[in-house]
Specification:
With 172 residues, the chain is α/β, with parallel strands linked by helices. The chain is built from seven helices and five strands; from the N terminus they run αβαβαβαβααβα. It is globular. The termini are far apart.
Length: 172
């Protein structure tokens, strides 16, 4: 047998290795819950030799008939997305020494999450954090929870939003 030809065991090891180095996806926004999800995902990626991806979705513009206004709003939204992603990337680096992949998309959140997970098969888990207020789990978890089983092709972990950094570090 040629020494460069992979055996069945080598192929299995490669598949297992790819599965173990999966990417954890966090949806980036300004909420406190995002930072809880980020900490959990960063620590989990660190402990499993995984990777981290941060997704920011810019919603569709409401000023499509005013091209100058729309262009300016898109520029501002993109700048805000970049600012937040770099801030969160810095936090991930401090928490776990990771440099996350930063993704900015335009469209509807659910559609862009589905598209990204289909385009990038290394994304193996989406991490969200539930809100702690009386309003319920928060708008992101509420809007996504009803569709999780039917639409999303990956598992979703929902972390309690009130967890302390120390508690997250113990379980991630």
């Amino acid at each position: 047998m040629n020494s460069t030809t992979p055996t069945g065991n080598d192929t299995t090891r490669a598949a297992i290795s790819a599965a173990l180095t999966r990417k954890l996806l966090v949806i980036a926004d300004e909420s406190d819950e995002c930072r809880v999800a980020l900490r959990y995902a960063a620590r989990r990626a660190q402990h499993t030799n995984g990777h981290l991806a941060l997704l920011y979705v810019i919603g569709p513009s409401e000023f499509q008939n005013w091209s100058g206004v729309e262009a300016r709003m898109r520029e501002e939204a993109r700048a805000e997305a970049e600012r937040l992603l770099y801030e969160l990337a810095g936090e991930a680096a401090q928490i776990a020494g990771l440099v996350p992949e930063l993704v900015i998309r335009e469209g509807f959140l659910k559609d862009e999450i589905i598209a990204l997970t289909k385009e990038d098969p290394s994304i193996g888990l989406m991490v969200l954090a539930a809100g702690t207020g009386r309003e319920g789990p928060g708008p992101l978890v509420s809007s996504l929870a009803s569709d999780i089983v039917m639409i999303y092709p990956i598992p979703v972990t929902i972390v309690p939003g009130g967890m302390t950094p120390e508690a997250i570090d113990l379980i991630a």
